[in-house]
Design brief:
The protein is an all-alpha fold. It has one domain: MFS general substrate transporter like domains (Growth Hormone, Chain: A, Up-down Bundle). 75% of the residues lie in helices and 0% in strands. The protein contains 5 helices and no strands. Residues 7-13 have low confidence and may be disordered.
Length: 154
Amino acid sequence: MEPGQRAIFSVRHQGTLASVPRPVLFLAIALMLMRGAESLVVPILPLYVKLLNASIVLSLVGLVTSINRLGTVFATPIVGRWCDRIGYSKPLMIGVFVASGACVLGGVSFGAIDLGLWRLLSGIGYGTVTLATLAFANRVTTLKNRATAMSLIH
């Protein structure tokens, strides 16, 4: 490029990790731990379902494994409107209690159907926590550091 010409594309770093508010960082770490716990459950879930009922078909194991994300998909539009209407704090706390309670009840379930129900409820709680965290990050960040905060959460 010759002197005096301007670059067509210039890359500017809009925000750094230090510019993100501390509560957003704490919520991002909490979501990372929640996702980590969920990812630890998935590999052992087929063995757990087999322990519950030895004559279970393999497709039901896949359904019980993936039904968590189905709950998240169903919860997303409803929780999004709920967060817009009442704020992020109540949905965040309710989502944490729903997800953690469903995970505990999934650990003491007696059958594959019972486990699937608790996994669905866990997905609804997980979706609620994720959307409430995104709503919180949207409200407390500026345009300069919003992309950094959202990338930490998602």
